[in-house]
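Possible race condition, two jobs.
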Amino acid sequence: MIQSMTLAERIGQLNLVNPGDQPLTGSVANVDVRRSVTEGRVGMMFGIGSIERRREIQNLCVRETRLGIPMLFASDVIHGYRTALPLPIAMACTWNLELIERSAHLAATEARADGIDLTFAPMVDVTRDPRWGRLAEGAGESPVLGAMIAAAMVRGFQGSVDGSQLTGADRMLACVKHFVGYGAGDGGREYAAANLGPHELHETHLPPFLAAIDAGVAAVMPGFNTIDRVPVTADARLLTTLLRDQWKFAGAVISDYTAINELQSHGMGDLAAVSARAINAGVDVDMVGQGFVSTLERSVEAGLVDESTIDRACRAVLRMKFMAGLFDDPFRSLDVERAAKVIGCDSHRKEAREMASQSFVLLRNQNGVLPLPTTGRIALIGPLADDRTNLPGTWSFSARGEDCISLLEGLREVGGDRITIETACGCNLVDDPVMARRLNLFGETVTINDRTSDDMIAEAIEVATRCDTVVMAIGEAKEHSGECSSRTDLNLSDGQRELIAALRTTGKPIVLVIFAGRPLVLTDIVDQVDAILYVWYGGSLAGPAIADVLLGRREPTGRLTMSFPRSVGQIPVHHDQLPTGRPLPPNTTFEKFKSCYLDEINDPLFVFGFGLTYTEFVFDPPTIDRSVIDAAETAKVSITVRNVGRRDGVAVVQLYWNDSVAEVSRPRWQLQTFERINIERGGSRTVTFSVRAEDFAYVRANSIADVKWQWDAGEIILGVGSSVEKLTNVTLRLVRAPQ
């Protein structure tokens, strides 16, 4: 087909436009799109508001353009579609790879039914900075868990690794993002530079991308950031040498929103110069900026871009269209009747409820306050108690607030007539009108009550006094997290903290239900309340899912995938930090000339892997079947977990490792693998992990592209337990077999 296309038509396939039908995810929209389409100068589109509009555009492509090449429609399908699912950071906390894969499949089923062929997901950026709002789209701080989740998401979206399932009505192309290091921006700010050496890049930030590529992901999106002062969008070391030459990636590289144009702000020349630089570096598709379509013909004529480079990029786009089955039937996914049956259907909502309930993390439960009694009076207090508009969470343009079920509605449904619920707002989510306007950019989700703070608190105290237990629904607004929602203050708002302090005077048990898209700083309030259930943003069915857990119909099974800092000043704080030559002695908060703070302890408030349950597990000492292995041998680490509590439950058995002899400094603990197991009350299960010497390889790097992985003979410490702070160790020695 490429041979029959003019140069202008080939370049046109590289042009991804947004006519602005939906809320913009960047600062501009494209104009005069219809004319560009009929001239064959558009290959992909996103931001289209309806399936009817997509049918109209597809009809234009196949019937009124010279070659009849179908349009490929894209969208940000991040965590569900019409049926909003828990935020990706919340889904990660399930530690349930099968469920995570199913969440992507469910999202693909609804989106494809609405005519969407490609999603700009999964986002697999590893981050250790909760100031960065976009962490809501990712899996947290572990590259190991992040890689497993990346592969699961790609499988869910696309199906089989070979792409053979992509022509089906329930699969869609995936574009993994943001390659690479985007979650490590300076100061936790969006679009900021990342200062990463090759060791950190390859061990921490690249593994999830490689996992996505091994799973067959169709496309890769470079980040806005720089690496070693080179913008990734123009970095041939990453996009060609590493991605294509070394990793053998054969898919498409799609720029982020106007990222090519923004190379001009980095001082790399005018639009023609940066467009040439981007495509020569390895970018195939220009999102919204239209630098390719407006300058590349002249750059080819001037010898700045080789025509074979245009062909490579065009071939990548056409390949995606073939994979999606668009050449077989351009209207296959544009069936209005099927869309009405599939999108938001009852079976999807049932699954969404289960996914949400597994994502919640129980952080505190003094004296077994939870689960709540199934009879009595509950004071449901807080600005998010009866809120629907925030429940879908950030980056959920296709979800609708009216489809969501609030916490109040969920408690009434689950509790029935046995529970009396009284409500009060108690405080505003935010009190600052300027902040409220910023949070309401995509529609009003935050309102400021006309009543005074004293009036609202007084009403809340009155309601609480009449009830047995106080459940507080507080946290962030949904747009506190997401793109360009970086924060320097991670505390709950002053109004919410004042409300907690006031309700504490009633003497009633207080259960915090915290809605958020990031780890918040809870240090000052954790001891003021009896229980904390961290529910993130759980999607359309969050309300009944929360009620299921609060009232004991479901167990809390979530475990943290990001450490919770005690203060912003600790950031970054994470489980796999490098050691120091002057470590603080155990059980010590301060010692001069040791690595510590004057005003805070080193450890996070809640560690990676942490999460309470309604039952109690005992982890017996682990055993290892052999203490010495060489490259050809396998060791098996086993541990028995006993449920000694009164309820069935889920344990997440986690295996970590520490390398005591290496050529470079190694993390104090690094996740190796895990297993999520169900154990009935009074029962036990034994988990066995198999490890090989190659599992303990680490990076030796001279540059981004000059990298090797190696393991050394010596001692490996293996820690097994329920979280990174509760490990029991065994020792394994690696040896080189005689040559």
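Job #2 (started ~2 s after job #1):
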Amino acid sequence: MRNAETAAFVAAWILSFAAPAAGGEAFAIVGARVFPGTSATERHDDWTVVVRDGVVSELGPRGSIDVPDGVRLVDGRGRTVLPGLIDLHVHLFGSAGRVDRPVDVDPTLNAAAAAAFGVTTLLDLNAPEDRLVERYPPGRARRPGAARVLFAGAALSAPSGHGTEGGFPGRTATTAAEARRQVRQLVARGVHVVKLIADGGGWADVPEVPALSDEAMRAAIEAAHAADRLVVVHAVEVERARAAVLAGADALAHLPLVGAMDDAFVALLAERGTAVIPTLAAYEAQFRLVDEPAILAEPDVRRFVPAAVLDGFVESEWRDAAAAAERPAWFRERYGEALARLSRLHAAGVVLLPGTDAGVPGVFFGDALHRELEAWVEAGIPAGEALCAATSRAARFLGIDEGAGTLAPGRAADLLLVDGDPTADVSTARRVVRVAAAGRWVEREALARRLAGAAAVPVERSLALADFEDGPPAGFQVRRSAHADEREARASRVRDGGEGNPTRFLRVEGDVRFRPPSGGFAGLHLPIPEGVDCAAYVGLRFRARAAERRTVRLLVATDA
């Protein structure tokens, strides 16, 4: 078993950012305003953009472009063409619905929903790398009409730290050697960046959990850089963010909001060139759905966010609980400070990059990036600069700027056509007329129909059996999220329910109840000690029972 696991981890993926597959549509957008994304101020009126074979073939003043016969013409008058937008912080395996009212949405459908809003490149920052590799194998030609997806795989945290509660196998380390080993495994599985969790909560209603040690964080960053991978670090606390920057992080996954942001920290960010991905859209979503429910009725939100997700946020029971909850109040009180901090970083010349945390509750794919850019403008950042950050600057950060992020001959035809001028009013970037991804129009109407079929699924409310012969080993835990009450969780060895089977099982019993508004999850951590021979085991048998009808999902993680 150990040899098979090692072989699986050693299998190397060759990373390449392949050109789009041939077969994109041939079309020309005529007479449009063009924002190439090359600078915050460059724009051109009455231009034509020609797309063939998945790439931009020509663009320039309308009278200077000879559109070939047979190329479909699209009216660009009164409209703006700009490069496809990039979101550097999403979670494709999340539905953006309430945790206690999950919705079953395939990650490829979430990526398509983002593309419908004009977000044609996504960076997933915490999900099982195997499941993403299955859908987006490195080196495979990109499908025209679909968003480009890059990923970090599972984030690396301390044991029982933030990131391990996501309901899927996480990665943890306590020593430098463990951190390096985990990073090597991530690289072998094809990740594009590495994500680390530097802080441990203890603010708002977030429980205090273990944080990745400075030693492990430095080792992980060194290993990632040695493999030519960028490192993005989750750190909401200023002091942990400072430690991440000093350790060599390439970007912070959030705007640090806990603790004083002193001049020395701001100067350190600017001097080191460490980027900040603010995720103001995620901060604001914590209270905005309570304060401004009308946003749930916006036309494109209704079309491209599953109704089962939206319905959860209009239920009266949830709204009453959320209105009185600690988390919305905490973020509401600090949101003005978040805008002020972003303005301060911008003035100091800190690199700012767009990201939203889309997929977590209330942060909708695609829509959230528009809200993020609007928040940047509220903080005093010019609209053109915000758009440039969400196109060419983000592409340069990812290392894909040779093929994306700007409108230029030979670049992938990721673009959106919008009514109005988003360089003057960034909110007009929401007024999407059409979106092309890798040279093919995104089928927005068909997508809206598919999203309408996504359904809410019952949430897990109790725990059942885990198969292990000799009782719980050291490190056995029943894990729960911050919003779950664990009652009388216990473990014992029993025979198989009195059915005559002499096999011994570890029975884990408990009653886990979830608190609104955010709900929660529960699961087991059952480590198998080093050296245990599992060759005699041919499978895993389990039963589950819940207080209500539901879907049961079993996730098994191995750590070689």
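Residues 132 and 151 are 8 Å apart (CA to CA).
Logs attached separately.
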